[in-house]
Design a protein that fits this description.
Structural class: alpha/beta
Number of strands: 8
CATH topology: TIM Barrel
Order of helices and strands: HHHHEHEHEHEHEHEHEHEHH
Largest sheet: 8 strands, parallel, barrel
Strand content: 5-15%
Bound molecules: flavin-adenine dinucleotide
Radius of gyration: 18 Å
CATH architecture: Alpha-Beta Barrel
Number of helices: 13
Distance between the termini: 28 Å
Shape: globular
Length: 304
């Protein structure tokens, strides 16, 4: 219930103005965001690389409403890739299709993604399309299929285990060679489309992970959930998938001690590092994932 409310609040322009205009909320949000600009994202990436992690850099922004906004966002992503290449960082990028104009024109989105994937491939890095709300799941899956069948190699997307369709999407996308990021899902979806109970979401996560570890292309296991991480570690052993043949992924600022422990155990660990000033919806989804974050946030508000 609280989760659904917070996810809905992430779409409210009024709340967005109220939350982002306060210095204090910005400070709290920066627990999950590297900073307002690309330099901050690159600094955070350097620090993570020094501790044995790889990175996926995410220029924050979503659901643009004009073509020039999509083109401007694509320009920042291309600059990000350029700077990653110059610095020799172990970092790819994550991109939200609706930030590249998906809801305005799938053709525009495909054109911008094609440029981004081409640039990333030139420096041997990967592009992951974030998976957003269920209204764009099918078209996002279709974009990945089109980019891969057009000859690209370094592009895949996230898949969300809360969606009933995902187990089939995992097979469909693996068949065209997509490397997938498996996550639970961070939006509010109706029962018709999505499992609502934790048990069902986790069971589908395990089923998808098992398929990916057995037959998928370089699985990217995105979760902070101890039980699922242990399960995946055991599955990988049982299925003969080496520690360098898949990776765990976690969010910047979430469970850093667990991140370090996995690296010490010899696992690959990639951190999702968001940067930019459009942090409001991202921050609200992080609050929604963990009630303790809301309490922390409210305490910080009260203490100002
Ligand atoms: C690298 C990465 C990329 C992602 N990309 C997408 C995407 O493209 N589309 C999408 O819908 N979702 C995405 N997500 C979010 C994901 O769907 C979940 O909402 C989120 O990861 C929480 O689920 P969990 O698997 O960590 O398990 P949970 O059961 O939610 O969390 C397990 C434990 O992790 C800790 N934890 C989890 N979240 C937080 C938090 N926000 N703050 C503090 N502690 C926390 C808590 O200790 C919690 O008990 C991504 C997640 C990761 C890690």
């Amino acid at each position: 219930m609280l989760r659904t409310l917070l996810v809905k609040a992430s779409e409210s322009p009024t709340l967005r103005r109220q939350v982002t205009s306060r210095r204090l909320t910005r400070d709290v949000a920066m627990r999950f965001v590297a900073g307002d600009n690309l330099d901050a994202g690159l600094d955070a990436s350097r620090a993570l690389a020094r501790s044995g992690k790889t990175v996926t850099l995410d220029y924050l922004g979503e659901s643009v409403t004009a073509e020039h906004e999509a083109r401007a966002a694509a320009k920042v992503v291309l600059e990000t890739i350029d700077r990653i290449g110059q610095a020799g960082l172990p970092a790819g990028v994550s991109v939200k299709p609706t930030q590249m104009g998906l809801r305005l024109s799938p053709t525009l989105c495909l054109e911008l993604l094609d440029d981004i994937v081409t640039a990333a491939e030139a420096i041997d890095q990967h592009v992951t399309l974030d998976m957003e709300g269920s209204d764009v799941t099918e078209v996002t899956v279709g974009l990945v299929e089109r980019l891969l069948t057009a000859g690209h190699r370094e592009v895949g997307c996230a898949v969300q285990s809360y969606l009933r369709r995902t187990r089939a999407d995992v097979e469909r996308l693996s068949a065209v060679g997509a490397s997938l990021r498996l996550c639970k899902g961070a939006y509010a979806e109706p029962e018709r489309l999505a499992f609502q109970s934790r048990g069902e979401v986790d069971a589908n996560y395990v089923a998808c992970a098992e398929y990916l570890l057995a037959d998928g292309v370089y699985p990217r296991i995105a979760t902070h959930d101890d039980r699922l991480i242990d399960h995946v570690r055991n599955l990988a052993v049982r299925l003969g998938r080496g520690r360098d043949e898949f990776e765990f992924q976690m969010l910047y600022g979430v469970r850093p001690t667990l991140q370090d422990a996995l690296v010490r155990d010899g696992y690959r660990l990639r951190v999702y590092v968001p940067f930019g000033d459009q942090w409001y919806p991202y921050f609200m989804r992080r609050l929604a994932e963990r009630p303790a974050n809301v309490a922390f946030f409210l305490r910080a508000l009260r203490d100002t």
